[in-house]
Amino acid sequence: QVQLVESGGGSVQAGGSLRLSCAASGYTANMNCMGWFRQAPGKQREGVATIYTGGGSTNYADWVKGRFTISQDNAKRTVYLLMNSLKPEDTAMYYCAAGGVCSLNPHWFNVWGQGTPVTVSS
What is the pLDDT of residues 52-89, one digit of tens each? Predict the structure, then answer.
């Protein structure tokens, strides 16, 4: 059973940075993709970025526009999301997820962490 634990969320001012971490444990061999998603109050969960665990190829939501970077440390079984130039509209609960298909559609991910909150003040 795969478990994901996120950390690194917090409160920052607009323009600031945060690095989120997602540590995986358990059997992950069939999880080809790791992703970060977010959900703001009253809104649907949306994809932020994904990374193919086998080769490291990445995919980002258009609105990220170079501000965020997803990366992985396979030795530590950890995926990161570095978020720069944060905006108040980035305020949300951020979730890490694992699945078999690298898509920004959360439908393709079947293992989820508990989430870590990010609050960006203006």
Answer: 998 889 999 999 989 999 999 988 899 999 999 999 99
Distances (CA, A) of 46 to 28, 50, 54: 23, 12, 23
Integer distance in angstroms from the first to the last C-alpha of the chain? Answer: 40
Q: How confident is the model at residue 31 (pLDDT cuts 50, 70, 90)?
A: confident
> What is the C-alpha separation between 71 and 26, in angstroms, rounded?
20
Three-state secondary-structure class, residue 108: helix
Count Cα neighbours of 36 within 13 Å in the Cβ-side half-sphere: 35
Q: Which of 111, 77, 108, 76 is nearest to 96 (CA)?
A: 111
